[in-house]
Every structure is written in structure tokens, then in C-alpha cells.
Amino acid sequence: MYDLESLAHVAIPGAAAVGLGLAALYTYHTSQISIKPSPHDTMKTYDREDQVDHAAVAQKLEDISSAIEEGAVSFLKAEYKYISAFMTVFALLMCIPGFLENGVYAGVAFFVGGLTSLTCGYIGMRIAVYANVRTAKQATIGIGEAFVCAVKAGCVMGFALVSIGLLVLYALILVYRNHFQEDHQAMFEVVAGYGLGGSAIALFGRVGGGIYTKAADVGADLVGKVEQGIPEDDPRNPAVIADNVGDNVGDIAGMGADLFGSFAESTCAALVIASYSQELCSNWGSIVFPLVLSAAGILVCFVTQFFATTFFVIDKIEDIQKSLKNQLLISTVLMTPVAVFVCWLYLPATFVFEIKTGSETGDVIRITAKWWYSAVCILMGLWSGLFIGLVTEYYTSHSYKPVRDVAHACQTGAATNIIYGLALGYQSNIIPVVCLAATIYVCHMLAGMYGIALGALGMLSTLSIGLTIDAYGPISDNAGGIAEMAGLGEDVRKRTDALDAAGNTTAAIGKGFAIGSAALVSLALFGAFVTRSEIGLVNLMSPLVFAGLLFGSMLPYAFSALTMKSVGLAALAMVAEVRRQFHEIRGLMDGTAKPDYARCVSISTDASLREMMLPGAQVIFTPLIVGFVFGKTALAGVLAGALVSGVQMAISMSNTGGAWDNAKKFIESGQLGGKHSASHAAAVIGDTVGDPMKDTSGPSLNILIKLMAIISLVFAGAIDKYGGFLWKWL
After folding, report:
1. Which member of 96, 284, 661, 681 lies 3.0 to 4.6 Å from 5 by CB, making a disulfide possible if both were Cys?
2. Per 3-state DSSP, what percentage of the chain is helix, strand, and coil (rounded to 5)?
3. Contacts of the segment 141-147: beta carbons below 8 A, 24+ positions apart
4. DSSP 355
């Protein structure tokens, strides 16, 4: 018999060490790329060598990179001050004596989870702003060199986040194990605070970062491209630096915090449910199996990334998208046998969950599962994630018919463009929802709510690669903007545009992946909440539950209204400022005067910090108010309604926005009249409408459904004890 506890003690920290080692190595590789021209590359790297002052171009690269880095760091510092204050107050509330059982331990776990999320987001942002200018510099040498630079920087983000998250969570569990001993149910209930901390930070990071980036993007596009007719990322545009800063704080730090929250929450949900099985609790290796699975995923992703960075050389633009897609395919294929092996090794042949229903007769629901049932659940989640990603690519890439139909609709104006884009988003729901429904049904039939939690973990098992290709997008986007602002030449810009176009599609795939995993994670947390609250079965015929269901299905709409209006308010201020500068600064359009970039950065920062408060308060306080006022069964209805409504809204909004963006890029590639045509103007309007949908409201809905569920789980004991006072009175 294997000593599974010893194996777990080695496997989990060991895999995390491998991931952190790779992140450190690729950080070093990136640092070795010099921005300044050397005697070896001065005459052969930049296009039009006889016309370029290489020293001046290098200085421009450094100045632009510094401005982007300064803006990103300034925003995160300001945002982190607000978040730190929230974390402190919320953790202290959790520690109030008599409110939560073991509240001090839950509060510490919450604070540790939040701090870990902040750290991971900051690391991702730093490597992104460090690598973007180096990717632009490598594009002067060749497309392959620039691609590898962007992918390696993405690997730093992906592997560092998952490794740190896994290592800190396991260390927290080991510390708490000394106190709780064999009381696994109590221990993992407080450890769920770690997931709550990560998800709470993700809310503010996603909403705040999304408002920041889209306010700048809308201002830059409407005034610069539409009114002034200047190219995207033109240095004469006052909002161009704020736009590039937004890519880092929204799409890097925000997305990283979002998926870190999914990882932490799905793991905590699986641990909570596993604690209700005596067979799993009898062996430490079996009870921490969710962490072992994530550790195995890091090793699989470690092998997979070599196919993009080492084994295959990119020498044609057409190879970029193929290489990124292969990362998803290879990691999924490799993870399949590994997941089955890990299940066979760590899980008992048969294990039983005994869940109380909370009825007066003391009825207990018994669910019997086997190790290979668990393997099937993991594989269902793993392959569903791949299918959702591929479907998202089909509906958002201009290589396929749906986006080209949207582009052709631009020939008759912005109205038909918007009609086609909305229809595409609604239609793109069908296959992902079918995949999720099939996964949920099979997983629940085989292993109950534990099976659904394992399905979520299966979808997230290749998270390191998912984050890598997701971070690649903003890095390449920034590289293109820097190349334009530094005047690196048409050939260089063509290469960075190709990298950026592939990055747009991978970003859309990443959003689809995040939404799919959020659905399974939220349902797993819902199952953990129902299990902990001893609700048993949720009766939809109950008036209280159905009322909660209806109310919960409304919440994503209310949340989206708040976030989209926040982007609109911030964009109004940005548009007014950009117009003012074009009107008042003489020589700005001629290129003889410099715009006031700092003012636009300040507008985006102030607006995002101010506007993120109300949506955040809605998500955090709704489950607490419903639970304590109307009780746990009403809260169960609210969570179910928010999940069903939120997932489909998120898919639709993200894919609609992505389709509008790539329809614009399809036209800019020279199709249907190209740049400065009537079709292009209509496409820019559609892209502008879609910006807050795909980068603010849509992705933030992931966090809404997850955060409400994890709050309900962490406060389940208190809600069970004190909740429903109004309903009882009625």
C-alpha cells in the first residue's frame, strides 16, 4: 500500500516548485532582452535601417514602456489601498465572537486568500509591462522571436499564479490541521475563507480594471479614430497610454484574480464536500486529492508549454493561432491519462457521502462513488472546457463565418452591425450550455456534488496554460501599441498586429473558459452550501424558493446595468478630455506637441475606483441580507437563479463584444473597404459598444455567481443559526 500522505506532501510542494522555477527562468530570459540597440543588431533588426535613428527609437521604447508601467503601478497601488481596507474590515467582522463558528480561523483564511490574490495579480502585471516593450523589440527581428517573448511572459503569469495559490492553500491546510486534528468538516469550512478572499479581490480587480480599460478605450476610439481619423495607438491620441495601461490592470491583473478565485473556490468546495465521506477522511492523501490534481496539472502544463516555446518555431504569421490552439489541445490530451492515474492512485475503490437533509426525522442522503466515477467527472470537465473554448473561437474569430457575417453587416451601417452582433451572442450560448448541462448531469449522477466539484477542477486542471495564452493577448496588444507609438515601421507593425489578432481570439477563448469554469465552480459551491446547511433537496414548488429563484435571476441584469453605466460615465469624462486636448493643444495633430497622457490616466483611475464600489456592494451584501432576513432556503433559490441567468448573460455579452472587435479587425485588414471606409466607421461603433460587454460586464458576471456562492458557504453556519428571522415572524 502506498503512503499517500507522504506522496501528497512531496507532490504538491514539488509541483509548485517546478511551476515557480519555470516562472523565474522565463523572467530571467525576458530580462536578457535589451531594449537598447547593440553593435550586433543595429544594422539588421529595425526596418528601414538607413532611415532610423536606432538610439532615438530605443529611447522612445523605454519612455513609452515607463509611462505604461507607471500608470499601471499607480492604479494598482490606489486600488489596493481600498481593497486592503475592505479586507481588514471584513476579516474583523468574521472574527466577531459568537457570529461564526471558528470565525477567527475563517477570517485569517479570508485575509490570506485575499493577500495571495493581490500578490499574484501584481506579479502578472509587472511581468506584462516588462515584457510588452521587449515583445515589440523582438518583433524587429522576426515574428517567431516576438511570439516566444510574449508566450514566455504569459507563462510567468500562469505558472506563478497557480503555483503560489496551490502552495499557500496547502500550507494553510497543514497549519489548521494541527488545531482541528481529525475534525475535517470544521477545518475545511474555515479554509473556504481562502476562496472567499480570492474571489472578493477578483470582484474589485475585474470591475475596477474593466472600468479603467474600457473608459480609456472608448475615449481613444471615438475621438481618435472616428472623429480625428488617426490610427489606433497613434501617439498623438491623449488616451493612448491609459488604453495600454488598462490592458494590464484589466486583462492581466483582473483576469488573473478571476481565475485564481475559481481555482481556490473549486478546491475549497471539493474539500468541504469530501469531508462528509469517512472513506476519504480516513486517508490524508484522499482528502487532499483536489490539490494533488492541481499539482498534476502544473506538471502537465510544464510539458505542454515547450511545444510553443521550444519544440516548434514560428516563422509564418499563419502559424501563430495554430500554435496557441495547440496549447489547449495538447494540455487536454496529456491531462487525460494523468487525471485517470491520479484518481486510481489517491482515491479509494469505493467511498460514500452521508449528507443530512435537515428534516425532523433525521433523514440522511447516501451517495456511493468509485474512483473511476471521479475520473469520469474530471474528464467531463476537462473536455467540456476545451469544447467551450473552441466554440468561443468559432464565434469570435474572423477566420470563421459568424464574425464575417457581422463584418458584412457593417456595409449597411452600425445598426445592422449591432443587430447581427447581438444575434451572434445569443446563438453562441447553445453549445456551451449543452456542454455544461451534460457535464453537470453526468457528474452529479456519478458522485453527487463532489462530482460537480471535480468537474470544475478538471476544467481548471490546465489553468497554467489557460492563463498563459490569456496573458499573451494583452502583452501582444501592448507590443503593437508601443511599436506604433515608437514608429518602428510597417513591417514591425504588421508582425505585432498578427500577434495581437491571435491574442484577441485567445482572450475570447480565455473568457469562455473562465465562464464555463465559473458555472461549475458556482454549482459546486452551491452544493457545498446545501450540504453544510443540511437543506437536502431544494423544492422549486416552495413559494419562498421560487421567489428567490426569480430574484436571483434578476441580479446579473442589475449588476450589468451598474457596470455598463459606470463605463459610460467614465467614458464621457474621457471623451471630453481627449476632445479638449485636441482643441486646445496647438500642434498636437501635427505631431509637434505632446498630449497630456497623465491627465487621461488620472481620469480612468479616479473613475474606476469610484464606480466599482456599488456593484461590489451588491454582490457582497445580497446573499447576506437574503440569508439572514429570509433564511437558507430562500438563499438557495437566489443562488440558483443567479447562476442560471448569469452564465448565459456572460457568454452572450463576451462573445458579442469579441465578435464586434474582430469584425472591425477583419475590415482593417483590407476587406470590405478597409480603414477609413463607411464599413470601418460602423465597425468601430460596434466595437465601442461591445467593449464594456466583453471586458467589464461579461467577465465580471463570473465573479458575481461565484462570490455570492462562496459567501453563502462561509456564512452557512451563521445563516443556519440566525437566518430567516423575518420569514419566521411572518
Report:
1. 284
2. 80, 0, 15
3. 141/41, 141/45, 142/315, 142/495, 143/314, 143/315, 143/316, 143/317, 143/320, 143/495, 143/498, 143/499, 144/313, 144/314, 144/315, 146/476, 146/479, 146/495, 146/496, 146/499, 147/314, 147/320, 147/323, 147/499
4. E
In this structure, what C-alpha cell is assigned to residue 229? 481619423
343-381 tens-digit pLDDT? 999 999 999 887 766 555 556 778 888 999 999 999 999
- The label of the residue with cell 486636448 reads 581
Which of 32, 13, 555 minimizes the C-alpha distance to 299? Answer: 13
Backbone angles phi, psi at 536, to 5 degrees: 80, -105
Calpha distance 633→535 (Å, rounded): 7
- Quote the pLDDT of residue 359: 56
- pLDDT for position 159: 95
Q: Give the DSSP letter of residue 35.
A: S
Give the integer Cα–Cα distance in Å for 407 and 400.
Answer: 11
Please report, to the nearest 10 degrees, the dihedral formed by the alpha carbons of residues 60, 62, 66, 68 taken in order: 60
Q: Phi/psi of residue 283, each to 5°?
A: -135, 125
- Rg for the chain, CA atoms, rounded: 25
Q: What is the pLDDT of residue 44?
A: 42
User: Are the C-beta atoms of residues 15 and 301 closer than 8 Å to each other?
Assistant: no
Distance between CA atoms of residues 641 and 689, nearest Å: 27
Predicted model pTM: 0.90
Structure confidence at residue 451 (pLDDT):
93
pLDDT at 723: 77
Beta bridge partners of 368: 352
Q: What is the pLDDT of residue 348?
A: 92
How far is Cα of residue 404 from the mean position of the Cα atoms in its chain?
Answer: 27
Tell me the average pLDDT of the chain: 86
pLDDT for position 207: 85
C-alpha cell at 365: 442522503
Taking 50 as the pLDDT cut, the residues of the chain under it are: 1, 40-50
Q: Which helix (H) or strand (E) holds 364?
A: strand 364-370
Amino acid at 174: L
